[in-house]
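Q: Predict the assembly, please.
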Amino acid sequence: MAEVQEPVTRQQWRVLVAVLNSYRDFEVAREEGWYRIPLRRAPTRVGADYLAFYQTSVFGEERWAVNYYAPVRRYHIVSRRSLLPGEPNHPRADDLYYRIEIGSLRRLPRSIPSLRLRRITFIPTTLERLFGAEEINDLWCGTQDEEQLWRAFKERGLAAERRYPLTEGDEQRTADFALLCKKGRVAVCVDTEPAIRNVKVVREHPLISEYEARALGWAILRLDSSDIAGPEAACLRTIVELAERLGGVAAPPSS
Amino acid sequence: MRLGFPVKVLGQPGLKSHDTRRWQNHPHLSVSLAYLRDVFLYLDRQDIRMYRMAADLAPYVSHPDLPRFRYQIDDCATELSALGAMAKSYDLRLSFHLQLSTVLNALDEAIALQAAQLITAQAMILDGMKLGDEAVVVTHVGGVYGDKGTALDRFAARYDLLPDRAGRRLALENDDKRFSVADIMWVHRRTGLPLVFDYLHFQNHNPEGMRLMEALQVCLDSWPQNVRPKIHFSSPRTGMRVIERTGPQDERRDPMMRAPRPHQHADFIDPFEFVDFLRKVKTIDLPEFDFMLEAKAKDLAVLQLREHLTRFAPGAMYWGSNG
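A: Predicted assembly structure:
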């Protein structure tokens, strides 16, 4: 039966932006219609109606951007050995992977670049955002407070990065916003509840401690709802002043 | 004691309970299971150990006109098994609840057949996840159709026709208009089905005048010895309702205010009502059981009730204490 095009503005369609870092994986996605994620390194959000692909530096003119997306058809859990039968002696041959079957690749109406060419892992987002994003940072879906602060940053022309990794590994800590300044780095963490402000919900991305952030060379600002509330985020002046003390936000290399 | 909630996660945006795509766009159980895996991670972060999965987890699985969706459960054996292992490792009690449109005692044989197919499909999912007998498919008796006795008989007869694997997973709940605790007790005596006591439904529909603890006890006693029972708990809505009205030509009219009705579920659980109930429970010798909270604020209601219990009745969550 003919496939019906869903209206692309519907907010509820979930998209997982995944990384393609080789032509081989691109060909597998385009010709064979699948993508793989190792189970042990799978992000906290794997479920999606669509996959979109961030292409890394190997892709020439299409590099450092999201250019394609495809509808998800099926998730399988398989061993690497059955996924890649040509590599039976690979050290991780018995590891389990999600093999995500997808429909045909579709090109986005416009590329979504990573202005700072940053390392991307996975970004859970919506189809609405995928079609509206001007750059990678527009894809992340934050709490109401985070979204308000992001809009304020954009209005002020502050080139912040969202969900920026401060540490690596299993216990990865991220900053909700990072300002990469000429003489230092500012991590902005929005310490508010995701849904209803007086019901305590454990965060999906644990906050880094102030001590740990400083030890890693970050200046850290922790904000709550009252700091962000109002027509203009009350905290914005503090953030701008701190960034200016550190020489101002460095221009993204691709701007 | 576990506190659980049904289906939709409100505490973190973007967590879907299942694949909601229309049939034309190839929805699949495996996509639902990927969403469910993300939900399980969320539940573990919040220390919530009980959850009701979406009735449509396997999309269109019993749809009479879409036979190609029937084989999804067999296709997903590996994924179901992996997710079941994850649930076990999180000590997560899982269940299904049939939608009101799924009526096993319907007069129309086709509707009853579809209900039986859906019960079987949900039982197959629970079996595929290799879950214990605590994982059940909850249903109501269905319609009265002018004769309650015949309607109860028809339910029992249709239950007898279910495949063993489906019958073994089914549990029966009292409703708020038609079939009381006394009615479902009759079904239990006839079929052996375990009974899920619904607190709010009992308050709304108890024509026999049973005492609260008596009704609770008969429902708890209906479960097999080695299976921990569960009940449904919710508070009646007390806030004003705002009804958005539209005119004959979809012309918008002013919103209308309506007083709440006692069968409507509140957004959150009244902590004092809950503590009062727990204290009554602890005055008699009852087996331990779990609570499915049917509040409109879903997981947020669980999280808030836990905070309230800590504040107003520390220790109430633990059996054998004086909470």
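Residues 144-156 of chain A form the longest helix (13 residues). Chain A touches chain B at residues 1-4, 6, 12, 14, 44-49, 71-78, 96, 98, 103, 124, 126, 141, 143, 194-196, 199-202, 204 (CB under 8 Å).
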